[in-house]
Specification:
By secondary structure, the chain is of the alpha/beta class. The chain folds into 2 domains: 175 residues, 3-Layer(aba) Sandwich (Rossmann fold), CATH 3.40.50; 186 residues, Glycerate kinase, domain 2 (Alpha-Beta Complex). The chain has 15 helices and 11 strands. Strands 3-4-5-6-7-8 form a 6-stranded mixed β-sheet. A 5-stranded parallel β-sheet has the order 2-1-9-10-11. Helix 2 packs across helix 15 and helix 5 runs parallel beside helix 6. The chain is globular and about 60 Å long. The N terminus is likely disordered.
Length: 385
């Protein structure tokens, strides 16, 4: 099972379950217990500051909910807390960059109309391809048509942003139903000269090559082995077409295979492919916030090797390391035997290890709050120290 499917139980492939609403007594009861537990936290003459920069824990809590839980624990013991929910350029990017304030009806991945939310602030737009061409829109892999699914709706969403006056567009990838190499989106943007003077930044959360998108991602979208090979050949031919007709060699672009090749297709339209986490972090001024902080807390649902390859936890840890600031990752679960990366200065708290799988999933926000309280009180039980 892929990381994209949710916070999983190691070795079982089970998906995360929804938050069950917290323990009896609600938020006030949780905070009271946190105050008691964290009463021993060391006080300083000056206000101490923690930067809380988490990703979502898929299937349980959003990045904003994680940040709020950690922030409550910090403020309960007198710390200043900067809550900065983060994303890696995939799903959740729109929410952490201000949230939607526009809706446009576009063509869904299988041709049905969908209402796609997006954001426009001044001349800058934020678009998530999953809102227009996402796998969730068709009910998941079992209900998808991996051969016919198209990104035309994403192109229509970008066109709507341009028509609304956007001169800069951030495009979040991830969660796609498609492996069309971005051809649908490209056709929806014709004529391409309409994009003159528009800076399109494609936020890539993977480094996959254009043609490899079929083998790497199409199985997650319901493609059989035979369909994967068909899609691979189709992407290979499309790369030749893009080079011949537009002079863009998508095979040479790192990350062009993101979202089933949508990244490469948008590059043909003049878009720049950028690292998703780095772009989001810069938009949120995260490097500057971390400078001078006393502690950085990050989070995600499942910590594995991919966490350190363009994802939020690895990116935040790198920023903290560069600034000389202690960094702690609160995660749902850690893949067994993950020693090399965790041993590089990142401290890790596993909710499953602390309280067990059932409570970690059913009462995630409260578990995060308690874990952060223990970190601040010096009773974290972290690994990698």
């Amino acid at each position: 099972m892929s990381r994209a499917s949710g916070w999983r139980v190691a070795g079982t492939g089970e998906q995360g379950v929804g938050v069950a609403g917290g323990r009896d007594g609600g938020e006030q009861g949780v905070t009271a217990r946190v105050l008691d537990r964290a009463a021993g936290a060391v006080r300083h003459d000056r206000a101490v500051r923690v930067v809380i920069a988490p990703d979502k824990m898929r299937g349980t809590v959003t990045a904003r909910e994680v940040a709020a839980a950690a922030g409550r624990a910090a403020r309960a013991v007198g710390w200043d807390a900067d809550e900065v929910p983060v994303a890696d350029g995939g799903e959740g990017t729109l929410d952490v960059l201000g949230g939607p304030n526009r809706t446009t009806v576009v063509t869904g991945p299988l041709g049905e109309p969908v209402e796609a939310e997006w954001r426009l602030a001044g001349r800058t737009a934020v678009v998530e391809m999953a809102r227009a061409s996402g796998l969730a829109l068709v009910g998941g892999a079992d209900d998808n048509d991996p051969i016919g699914a198209s990104t035309v709706g994403t192109g229509e969403l970008l066109a709507a942003a341009v028509d609304a006056g956007a001169k800069r567009i951030l495009v979040g990838l991830g969660g796609s139903a498609t492996t069309d190499g971005g051809l649908g989106a490209l056709r929806a943007l014709y004529p391409l000269h309409r994009l003159a003077g528009v800076d399109i930044e494609v936020l890539c959360d993977v480094r996959t090559d254009f043609v490899d998108a079929a083998a790497v991602f199409a199985p997650q979208k319901g493609a059989s082995a035979a369909q994967v090979e068909l899609l691979r050949r189709r992407l290979d031919r499309l790369a030749d077409v893009y080079l011949a007709d537009h002079g863009v060699d998508v095979r040479a672009l790192e990350g062009a295979g993101a979202a089933g090749g949508l990244a490469g297709g948008l590059a043909v339209a003049g878009a720049r492919l950028v690292g998703g986490f780095d772009a989001v972090a810069d938009e949120l001024d995260l490097p500057d916030l971390i400078e001078g902080a006393d502690l950085v807390i990050t989070a995600e649902g499942f910590l594995d090797e991919q966490s350190f390859d363009g994802k939020v936890v690895g990116g935040v840890a790198d920023l903290a390391r560069a600034a000389g600031v202690r960094c702690v990752a609160v995660v749902g679960e850690v893949v067994p035997d993950l020693a090399p990366e965790v041993g590089s200065g990142l401290e890790v708290v596993s909710l499953v290890a602390r309280v067990g799988d059932e409570r970690a999933r059913a009462d995630t926000a409260a578990c995060i709050e308690e874990a952060v309280a223990d970190v601040l009180a010096g009773r974290s039980g972290t690994s990698g120290e």
